[in-house]
């Protein structure tokens, strides 16, 4: 059975979608930007600050569904400038320290002010 997840500690969805969908012990988390949940605005002047906020938002969604970063099996990264990839990885490697999930990274045009967007799949 499918269950839609909306986390109170993550930015409110800005369209017709859920933060995540839980089905058969798998959690599919929608793409997250560096949006401050209190202001609803993109924050962070550089890729590191934005990456930290993105993963803070993802953590809130995972927690709401009863998951954690250790449960993440796949990460999709959309970065506005691949020149920032090494700086992104500095933050990423502090979140995923071992048993790294599979990952795809692509350069993409994002919303104005956004430097990175991330979605994840987690499994129990």
SSE inventory with pairings:
Elements: E1 3-5, E2 20-23, E3 26-32, H1 47-64, E4 72-79, H2 85-95, E5 102-107, E6 116-123
Parallel strand pairs: 4-5
Antiparallel strand pairs: 1-2, 2-3, 3-6, 4-6
Helix pairs in contact: 1-2
Search tags:
single chain, 2 helices, alpha+beta, 124 residues, 29% strand, 23% helix, 60s Ribosomal Protein L30, Chain: A, 6-stranded mixed β-sheet
Verbal overview:
With 124 residues, this protein is an alpha+beta fold. The chain has one domain (3-123): RutC-like (60s Ribosomal Protein L30, Chain: A), CATH 3.30.1330.40. 23% of the residues lie in helices and 29% in strands. The chain is built from 2 helices and 6 strands. It has helices spanning 47-64, 85-95, and strands at 3-5, 20-23, 26-32, 72-79, 102-107, 116-123. It has a 6-stranded mixed beta sheet with strand order 1-2-3-6-4-5, with helices on one face. Strand 4 (72-79), helix 2 and strand 5 form a beta-alpha-beta unit. Helix 1 (47-64) runs parallel beside helix 2. The longest helix is centred in the middle third of the chain and has 18 residues, at 47-64. It is globular. The relative contact order is 0.23.
């Amino acid at each position: 059975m499918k269950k839609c997840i909306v986390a109170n500690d993550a930015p409110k969805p800005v369209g017709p979608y859920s933060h995540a969908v839980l089905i058969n012990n798998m959690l599919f988390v929608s793409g997250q930007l560096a949006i401050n949940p209190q202001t609803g605005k993109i924050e962070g002047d550089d890729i590191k600050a934005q990456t930290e906020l993105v993963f803070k938002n993802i953590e809130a969604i995972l927690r709401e569904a009863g998951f954690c970063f250790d449960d993440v099996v796949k990460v999709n990264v959309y970065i506005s400038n691949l020149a920032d990839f090494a700086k992104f990885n500095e933050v990423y490697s502090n979140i995923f320290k071992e048993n790294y999930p599979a990952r795809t990274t692509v350069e993409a045009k994002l919303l104005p002010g956004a430097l990175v967007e991330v979605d994840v799949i987690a499994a129990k």
